[in-house]
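Quick one:
INPUT:
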């Protein structure tokens, strides 16, 4: 009996030793090499003895930044072929990491997203505010009632100036060539931001303006070369040349077109009719897709912060977010009862949302 107990004890010790040695051996086999003068260890064991050994540091960087996790817990398969599907996944992860780690929000650690209207900063602006745009330092809010344009400092939410001269029913603003253009009631006015408000600032640029189809309401977007307008007369998106002539018409098949935004590749157009968001390739005018759901409810304006698309829902008292790179929905968020969100823009750090219900500008 004693011999039997000793054998069982010996067997248990031997098994524990084997397991310990196996784990240690696996750890010791993890590939280690020098990168920028420092020893770097990654869990893969098949790199240094492969044709990809010279790319050890690049593989290590891809692993540590989350671009790849290998083909198993201990293998990277550096000499294996990469399929088109796998390459698409690598490219997408690279884009995502670049956007997340390179933005102003990342530098300031502002990864959070407000969950409701109680967690946003509010600034009181003019009566019945609509469109808003950022010049990088300040926000310019078109107040239809009044009428006026409010200049708000983005860093503090403080109203700096209010412009009133020559304005009639302003609905939208556009920042270009160092000026602030104000569109409304068939008139286009220009604000010189280097000068204080006066009887000649804003100044009248043109009157009797209508959209290309003859209707009055139009919202603007700029792709770096051409101006695009949403035309409520024939429910289309139109591209204009330098003289204001239409050079491309994109029928959107949806009514109630709102304020579009250009994300560097595509133009996102909210459409209240059918609660849709139409995505158009700027280079060709082709409709890529029409999005619905994700909280869309009378979508009014779209904004882009370098990573995400935000759309205001005028009837839903909320905003909806999408990931611009792959058009995936990120959810919708309440702005509070009777807030009636309308215009929106981004200063590269925060989204700014016009709440026409309480006449507020919200920092999201």
């Amino acid at each position: 009996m004693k011999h039997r107990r000793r054998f069982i004890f010996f067997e248990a010790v031997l098994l524990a030793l084997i397991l310990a040695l196996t784990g240690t051996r696996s750890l010791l086999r993890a590939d280690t090499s020098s990168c920028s003068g420092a020893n770097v260890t990654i869990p893969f064991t098949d790199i240094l003895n492969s044709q990809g050994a010279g790319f050890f540091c690049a593989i290590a960087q891809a692993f540590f930044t989350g671009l790849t996790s290998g083909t198993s817990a201990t293998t990277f398969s550096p000499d294996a072929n990469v399929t088109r599907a796998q390459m698409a996944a690598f490219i997408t992860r690279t884009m995502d990491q670049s956007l997340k780690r390179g933005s102003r929000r990342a530098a300031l650690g502002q990864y959070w997203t407000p969950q409701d209207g109680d967690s946003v900063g509010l600034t009181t602006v003019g009566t019945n505010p609509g469109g808003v745009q950022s010049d990088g330092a300040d926000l310019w809010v078109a107040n239809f009632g009044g009428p006026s344009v409010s200049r708000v400092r983005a860093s503090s939410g403080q109203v700096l100036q209010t412009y009133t001269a020559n304005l009639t029913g302003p609905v939208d603003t556009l920042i270009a060539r160092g000026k602030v253009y104000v569109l409304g009631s068939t008139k286009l006015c220009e604000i010189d931001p280097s000068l204080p408000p006066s009887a000649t600032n804003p100044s009248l640029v043109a009157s009797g303006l209508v959209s290309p189809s003859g209707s009055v309401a139009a919202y603007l977007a700029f792709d770096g070369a051409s101006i695009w307008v949403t035309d409520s007369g024939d429910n289309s998106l139109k591209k204009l040349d330098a003289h204001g002539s239409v050079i491309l018409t994109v029928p959107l098949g949806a009514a109630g077109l709102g304020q579009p935004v250009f994300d560097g590749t595509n133009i996102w157009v909210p459409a209240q009719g059918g609660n849709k968001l139409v995505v158009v390739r700027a280079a060709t005018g082709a409709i890529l897709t029409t999005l619905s759901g994700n909280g869309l409810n009378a979508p009014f304006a779209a904004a882009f912060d370098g990573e995400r698309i935000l759309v205001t829902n005028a009837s839903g008292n909320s905003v909806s977010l999408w990931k611009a790179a792959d058009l995936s929905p990120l959810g919708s968020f309440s702005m509070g009862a009777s807030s009636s969100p309308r215009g929106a823009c981004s200063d590269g750090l925060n989204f700014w949302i016009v709440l026409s219900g309480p006449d507020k500008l919200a920092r999201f």
